[in-house]
Amino acid sequence: MRALGSFIFLFVLTRLMGKEQIAQLTFFDYIVGITIGSIAATLTTTPQDPFLPGLLGLVIWGLLPILIGLITLKWVPIRKIMEGEPVVIIQNGKIDEEVMTKQRLNYDDLLMLLREQKVFNIHDVENALYERDGQLSIQLKSQQQPATPKDLNLSTQYKGLPTTIIEDGIILTNRLKEVSLSKDWLLKKLQREHGIKNANEVSIAQLDTGGNLYVDIINANPENKTK
């Protein structure tokens, strides 16, 4: 029962904390996560200890980060204290050694962070920010930035997010309604363009904004998967 209670509480807690805890993990979030996990493990593995005091500690450690998160949403100064803020580590092509020292960042670390962004030459970087989660955001020099259709005076068609209309052999009728299409239209298109007679043969199908249908057939060889 202790293990089940701890599991349920941790599940509810992670849902309350939201996706930001995982997507933008700070050092403080990391410490909180370790502490909560340690308390939960102790509750589970030490049945001789009272359960309620441990549960109370788990509740406090779980709710305080949520409360702090709500406060930092409203007050920027507190947000900067609790979460920190990005710092410019390369500006106008020049590395700021003083900032590197303050952030306890050496050149091997900097080069590794650059390589993670597919940048292998510091000379190509115009500006770089060392984010609060330890990642590096980079602005390349204008000569090193890839050309865009606008740079080449080329016109482009609108391309939005594709719509998934079949998943695990099930037609998602609500998604079809969102794009003003019917089940009959989909089945005819599958038959005509892909030779598929039944939707349960399809693992996933997506429709892009240009009307092109991508289809992945269940258990098909890679060469038989169609677009």
List the helices and strands and how they pair.
Layout: H1 2-17, H2 20-23, H3 27-45, H4 51-74, H5 76-83, E1 87-91, E2 94-95, H6 97-102, H7 107-116, E3 125-130, E4 136-140, E5 163-167, E6 170-171, H8 173-178, H9 183-194, E7 202-207, E8 213-217
Antiparallel strand pairs: 1-2, 1-3, 3-4, 5-6, 5-7, 7-8
Helix pairs in contact: 1-3, 1-4, 3-4, 4-5
Compute the number of structural domains: 3
Alpha-carbon distance between the termini? 51 Å
Calculate the mean pLDDT score and round it: 85
Structural class: alpha+beta
Approximate strand percentage: 15-25%
Q: For the largest beta sheet, what order do the strands appear in spatially? A: 2-1-3-4
| Helix-strand sequence | HHHHHEEHHEEEEHHEE
What general outline do the C-alpha atoms trace?
flat
Residues in helices, as a percent range: 40-55%
Number of helices: 9
Number of strands: 8
Task: Classify the oligomer.
Answer: single chain
Low-confidence segments, given as residue ranges, are none
Radius of gyration: 26 Å
Biggest sheet character: 4 strands, antiparallel
Describe the structure.
The structure is a single chain. The chain is an alpha+beta fold. The protein folds into three domains: 2-81, no CATH class; 87-144, CRO Repressor; 163-224, bsu07140 like domains (CRO Repressor, 2-Layer Sandwich). The chain has helices at residues 2-17, 20-23, 27-45, 51-74, 76-83, 97-102, 107-116, 173-178, 183-194, and strands at residues 87-91, 94-95, 125-130, 136-140, 163-167, 170-171, 202-207, 213-217. It has a four-stranded antiparallel beta sheet. A four-stranded antiparallel beta sheet has the order 6-5-7-8. A hairpin with a 2-residue loop joins β1 and β2. The mean pLDDT is 85.
